[in-house]
Amino acid sequence: MDTPAYRPDEYNQLPDQPGVYRYYNESGELIYVGKAKSLKKRVASYFGSNAGINQKTRRMVKEIRRIEFTLVNSEFDALLLENNLIKKAQPKYNILLKDDKTYPYLLLTKENFPRIYPTRKVIPSRGTYFGPFASVKAMNNVLDLIRSLFTIRTCKLDLSPYKIYEQKYKVCLEYHIGNCLGPCEGLQSEPDYQKDIEQAKYILKGNLGIAKTYFKDRMQEAAQNLAFELAQRYKDKLDLLEKYQAKSLVISQSIGSLDVFTIVVDEKVAFVNYLKIKEGALILSKTVELRKRLDEEESVLLLTAIIRLRDQFQSDAKEILVNVPIEDELTDFQVIVPKIGDKRKLIDLSLKNALYYKKEKALLAGEVSDKKSRVLRQLQSDLSLPELPDHIECFDNSNIQGAHPVASMVCFLNGKPANKEYRHYHIKTVEGPNDFASMEEVVGRRYQRIQEEGKPLPKLIVIDGGKGQLSSAVSALKTQGIYGKVPIIGIAKRLEEIYLPEDSYPIYIDKKSESLRLLQRIRDEAHRFAITFHRNVRSKQAFGTQLTDIPGIGKNTAEKLLSHFKSVKKIKAATKEELEAIIGKDKTQKLLYQLNQ
Questions:
Q1: pTM
Q2: CATH architecture label of 8-94
Q3: Among 46, 110, 430, 496, which one is least packed by beta carbons within 10 Å?
């Protein structure tokens, strides 16, 4: 049961019973969920003495303003409730299971003559979901097996008894090639169809043994009735099942059904591999990454992964093999650390998967980091820069015959776009089509603002244009007193020439060079950003002009309308009352008269 909220200084009033506790900060945000055999003792450990509590935990404790808890019957119930609350709220101090995939399921529909098909959306009212599967390939293997063994329809027809009786449908190609027995025309009864569905369910649950017994019994029954052709068909299906199971066999079928979990820990991250064994067959292998939040111990991280992965992949195995002892006393399943034999081999197999995943992540992170620094070092060499250009800003202008002049600045940090640092500029001091003066204005405004705010200057400034635009940008830097402090170049589009200040001759970087491709990417991004902004400004201005052409509708009125409705189309769709609320009765009458002409 849930209880009234307690203040942090009231932790001694908590009961000495198992439960789940929740910490909230000053703004009422849930920041941590924990489980305990004794709520009183566990919560007291945070507030009593700081001995043994790490820095991250102290930081969390400082934020706590309210404590709530829920009593449960056992520690295992606390585990399940804790897992559900963490999944729902994702508190910032709880262990983060880094896995943002949407997994595929197989859905057995709730309808007459049920269908089985793949989906990634779980809507319980539609039927029974089996999965999730770790990959589409694994799911398709099961679906292909089911469709090879059983005659289950794939059409989307509504096979209600009335529509079948009224002969609304005709059999399709699937009937003629033997994949369906024609329930749409009443050629197969629903009880007979349901027999296949029941057997398909066992396979979806991983219980291949029951399905094998079914086909074996049907084969023997057909043989006794001298229906040898039918008996052969059942034998073929039995062979197909055994072939499928043999592909997945792990060590021996006598090992039964169990879960295997192993953990490998880094300083900030843990990797947990999960093997799901059903009737001696490996039906799932999944490795996940857990982000530490409070320097949790191995056993805590592993138990967190066990609860979440078993819940996610719907495991009901009563035996769990692990490589690290679990301190919590759990009565709902048995946790074993095997030392020898087939079960130890399963632990070794799981550890191999976890270590491989960890190695791949490290290699991938290293490759990405090395590539970025390699390209930046190459650019530094090509342009003879004093520092690694890990902060680059690029400027571009946009106008059409001088109309609606705007400019853009894009920022790249460590070779990647930093979208939050992008800036748009309306040209304020320049009249007419003058790209040079416009460039001088926006560069000057940018670095005046940077210096006023005390922010760091970039390591390289890139100007989209040739000598003229570069000279204008240099003038702006001189005005701001930072010329010579920041390297600046211009890049001309036609021949990808690189211009340096006060140098009449351009330099050329190898067309296949990664450093030139980075400059081109930055230049193209600045151009895209400027063009998009210019298009929006031009579009908004066009809307405004369309309105101000109406007698009695001035600029201020047009701006009010556009600010509220966003477009002329929405203004036309607005009711008379809505318009009157914005611009009054008289102007609404004039507006509606002109718009409806």
A1: 0.43
A2: 3-Layer(aba) Sandwich (3.40)
A3: 110
